[in-house]
Design brief:
Layout (H helix, E strand, L loop, with lengths): L5 E4 L9 H16 L3 E4 L13 H12 L5 E2 L12 H6 L2 H12 L2 E4 L3 H12 L24 H10 L4 E4 L6 E6 L3 E6 L7 E3 L7 H11 L4 E5 L6 H11 L5 E5 L2 E2 L9 H7 L8 E2 L6 E2 L9 H9 L15 H7 L10 E2 L2 H14 L2 H14 L7 H11 L23 H4 L4 H15 L6 H15 L3 H12 L8 H23 L4
Helix pairs in contact: 1-11, 7-8, 10-12, 13-14, 14-19, 16-17, 16-18, 16-19, 17-19, 18-19
Length: 510
């Protein structure tokens, strides 16, 4: 019987979660759900020098907003006694035990080199043309470690209790081949790899040791991560072998590229082109620098997730790209993940958001729209009124905040010059007469209003095209928006008549 699928998303709390990380989490989630497996959230905080306060909670909250759910993790009361934060696991002594195992088996060694000694060696190497220092088979015997020193000196170093690192002993001049589901067979030469530190002198494990040990102890069956980790994989394969363990299957995902397709998508690209690259707003606790998020920019999480799923994955037999999460789960296959990077086509994302906003139920949109009404400085009307504005604007919005059209919440005080050009003497005279027709409307509903006004104009021998732009000018002051009568229905009879009367009294005619 095959092992049940176990996958993990293992971000580092070094800042806000990039949208590329969200896609990695999404693919792990889809894969786990597709195979009835377990999805774990693990926090990899081995590099404490880059730790950013609040980043871990930001990761949890952002993924929760995206609708990406976990079965176990650092943010949950798992009841399993497992620690899902690597700094906690280090305090429990988990990693040193395994590092010492590698020392005993000859796959690792103690390194006593001080930071000052390492700096001097690096500077000396860099002073040579094309020089760069690599701590490995060619240099390890010139360094201060348990391989180069006599046994008594090694024991003396260890007896002092002074901090020392543990490095992996990279095999000399061997080929390491592993299979990646996306990239097929991949081979690296160990002569090009150095002896990575596994346990730092402060006792904290590096990513490499902690990642392998944790994946093993958590029974991870598939490692699905970004392609930037591909060069680390040969070391991980060798570590699994050194422990006598079978390594999980690997899936290295393609990069998310700039919209122009040249290079990895960055925050700077988003800033320059006017879109976020983080799920939600973020404020750096050190610099105070703020970065916008997709949530606050007016995107629905369902639209964002649907868009992200298709950046690097092709479901193959789906004609309509608008897919609910259950459909994505049913169709997802890592074998259909592309090797090539995917352009972050923000125009396509906006189109997805438009589609989702058109279809979203009122109960979903109401709580999203309300904060934007308050933020715009308007008093919040009742839900029925807001629902009316949403229905009137559905076909015309791109972002959630687009539902807050000013003319629905206040009489216009500024008028688009192009609309003022429609405010003619003839239009003004006709609208003055039409006030009584509208005031006498038995039903304040857009179809009935249209029919009554059309009958009035027919009797006057005036075409709709000559009057409707002027009426729109009076009601909203702007071009575009919902139909004039849909707008009138929402704002109500009193506001409609008041705005027409105000326009007649104050707007200069052309």
């Amino acid at each position: 019987m095959k092992n049940p699928v176990v996958v993990r998303f293992a971000p580092s709390p070094t800042g806000p979660l990039h949208i590329g990380g969200v896609r990695t989490a999404l693919y792990n989630y889809l894969f786990a759900r597709r195979h009835g497996g377990t999805f774990i959230l693990r926090i990899e905080d081995t590099d404490q020098t880059r730790f950013v306060p609040g980043a871990e909670q930001y990761i949890v909250d952002s993924l929760r907003w995206c609708g990406i759910e976990f079965d176990a993790g650092v943010h949950m009361d798992n009841g399993d006694g497992v620690l899902y934060r690597q700094s906690d696991r280090m305090k429990a002594g988990i990693y040193r035990e395994y590092a010492e195992q590698l020392i005993a088996s000859g796959h690792a060694y103690y390194a006593f080199d001080t930071s000052e000694e390492m700096d001097a060696v690096r500077k000396a190497a860099e002073s040579q043309p094309g020089g760069a220092f690599s701590y490995g088979a060619a240099t390890r015997m010139q360094m201060s470690n348990s391989l180069s020193l006599p046994a008594d000196q090694t024991q003396a170093h260890l007896a002092t209790g002074n901090p020392c690192a543990i490095r992996f002993k990279m095999p000399d001049n061997e080929a390491v081949t592993f299979h990646d589901i996306v990239r097929e067979d991949v081979t690296y030469q160990t002569s090009l790899l150095d002896d990575k530190v596994l346990l730092k002198s402060d006792g904290m494990p590096t990513y490499h040791l902690a990642n392998v040990v944790d994946d093993r102890l958590m029974a991870v069956t598939h490692v699905i991560r970004g392609e930037e980790w591909l060069p680390s994989t040969p070391l991980h394969v060798l570590l699994y072998g050194a422990f006598g363990w079978e390594h999980p299957q690997f899936v290295h995902l393609p990069l998310l590229l700039k919209p122009i397709g040249e290079g990895k998508l960055s925050k700077r690209d988003g800033d320059q082109m006017g879109f976020p690259v983080f799920p939600t707003d973020w404020a750096d606790p050190f610099s105070g620098e703020k970065a916008s998020g997709f949530r606050e920019a007016g995107y629905l999480p369902e639209a964002l997730i649907n868009f992200l799923a298709l950046l690097g994955w092709n479901p193959g037999d789906i004609e309509n790209e608008i897919m609910g999460i259950e459909q994505m789960i049913a169709s997802f296959s890592v074998e259909r993940v592309s090797k090539a990077g995917a352009k972050f086509n923000v125009e396509k994302l906006r189109s997805f958001n438009q589609s989702y906003l058109k279809a979203a139920p009122l109960e979903t949109l109401l709580p999203l729209v309300k904060p934007h009404i308050v933020a715009a400085g308007y008093s919040q009307p009742d839900d029925a009124y807001i629902a009316g504005t949403i229905q009137a604007l559905r076909e015309r919005v791109t972002y959630v905040q687009d539902f807050v059209a000013p003319y629905f919440y206040a009489d216009p005080t500024e008028f688009d010059p192009k609309m003022l050009a429609k405010w003619t003497n003839d239009a003004k005279a006709i609208l003055a007469e039409a006030q009584s027709v509208l005031a006498g409307a038995a039903t304040w509903e857009h179809t009935a209003l249209h029919d009554a006004f059309a009958a009035f104009l027919q009797e006057k021998g005036v075409g709709m095209g000559k009057i409707m732009p002027a009426l729109r000018c009076a009601l909203s002051g702007v071009a575009g928006g919902p139909g004039v009568w849909e707008m009138a229905e929402v704002i109500g009879k009193e506001a409609t008549l008041r705005r027409i009367a105000t326009a007649i009294a104050t707007l200069p005619t052309v």
